């Protein structure tokens, strides 16, 4: 007697109360339900490219743990122009603004997990749901603010200030005080020579703002880093609190 083939078990739907991505948590239950069947849990591996430049974007990614760097690549190297973690979504700008490609590389800077949704599903959901469209467009605006502040900091700030801001942005997107990163990678992301990063880290450690470990930097004094970063940090964070969370309190 021939046995019947086994049927695939149904995929259990991810519940909104179980997600960690702040954008998904900010959605109304109905708007979340429009994406719910298409959300797929996916690991993010260190240095994994989620979106390659000048290629068709097949999906958007809502990080749950870890974060993603957005970089501009040129003949003389690569420089980071943005960071996306559990507060945001990777790939929304080109998908929702009518392009479907990006000139930038989006790769995993700190491993973790993400929720993947096909680009076509996201477009369809946004077309029929004004509140979902508004929320994601507001997040795109916040990304523009972050990129503009990066340009301001690179033009006006010294290496210590830029490093303090970068460490704060990484710290915002993790659950503890330990940022996993090498000095070579910091040099790469900030677009400065390694000796400059080494000297800046020593300065931050001397003032007890951070402690260096092998392949990691421990944040000891966030308030001290905030004072040092000054107006190079906070613009995008304030806009996120206002546009996404509905808050107007100053940064702590």
Compact overview of the structure:
With 252 residues, the protein is an alpha+beta fold.
Name some characteristics of this structure.
Arc Repressor Mutant, subunit A; 2 domains; disordered N terminus; 252 residues; alpha+beta; globular; Jelly Rolls
Topology:
Layout: H1 22-26, H2 29-35, E1 40-44, E2 49-51, E3 59-74, E4 77-84, H3 92-96, E5 105-118, H4 119-128, H5 130-156, H6 159-172, E6 178-180, H7 183-190, H8 194-206, E7 210-213, E8 216-219, H9 222-229, H10 235-243
Antiparallel strand pairs: 1-5, 2-5, 3-4, 3-5, 6-8, 7-8
Helix pairs in contact: 4-5, 5-10, 6-8, 6-9, 7-8
Tell me the name of the CATH homologous superfamily of the largest domain.
Jelly Rolls
Q: Tally of extended strands?
A: 8
Total separate domains: 2
Beta-strand content estimate: 15-25%
Mean pLDDT across every amino acid position? 90
Topology order in helix (H) and strand (E) letters? HHEEEEHEHHHEHHEEHH
Radius of gyration: 20 Å
| Low-pLDDT sequence parts | 1-11
In CATH, the topology of the largest domain is named Jelly Rolls
Q: What assembly state would you assign to the polypeptide chains in this entry?
A: single chain
Which geometry do the CA atoms define?
globular
Number of helical stretches of at least 4 residues: 10
Task: Give the biggest beta sheet.
Answer: 5 strands, antiparallel
Label the structural class: alpha+beta
Question: What's the CATH class label of the largest domain?
Answer: Mainly Beta
| Fraction in helix | 40-55%
CATH architecture of the largest domain: Sandwich
């Amino acid at each position: 007697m021939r046995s019947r083939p086994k049927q695939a078990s149904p995929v259990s739907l991810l519940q909104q109360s179980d997600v960690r991505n702040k954008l998904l948590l900010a959605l109304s239950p109905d708007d979340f339900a429009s994406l719910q069947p298409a959300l797929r849990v996916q690991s993010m591996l260190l240095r994994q490219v989620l979106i390659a430049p000048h290629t068709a974007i097949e999906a958007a990614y809502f990080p749950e743990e870890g974060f993603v760097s957005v970089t501009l690549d040129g003949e003389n190297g690569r420089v980071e122009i943005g960071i996306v973690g559990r507060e945001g979504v990777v790939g929304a700008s080109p998908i929702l603004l009518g392009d479907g490609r990006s000139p930038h590389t989006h790769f995993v800077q700190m491993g973790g997990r993400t929720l993947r949704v096909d680009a076509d599903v996201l477009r369809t959901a946004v077309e029929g749901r004004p509140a979902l469209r508004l929320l994601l467009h507001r997040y795109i605006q916040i990304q523009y603010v972050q990129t503009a502040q990066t340009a301001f900091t690179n033009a006006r700030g010294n290496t210590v200030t830029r490093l303090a801001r970068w460490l704060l942005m990484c710290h915002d997107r993790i659950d503890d005080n330990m940022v996993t990163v090498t000095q070579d990678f910091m040099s790469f992301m900030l677009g400065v020579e390694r000796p400059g990063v080494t000297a800046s880290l020593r300065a931050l450690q001397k003032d007890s703002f951070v402690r260096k470990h092998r392949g990691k930097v421990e944040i000891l004094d966030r308030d001290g880093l905030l004072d040092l970063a000054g107006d190079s940090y906070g613009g995008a964070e304030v806009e996120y609190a206002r546009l996404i969370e509905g808050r107007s309190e100053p940064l702590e």
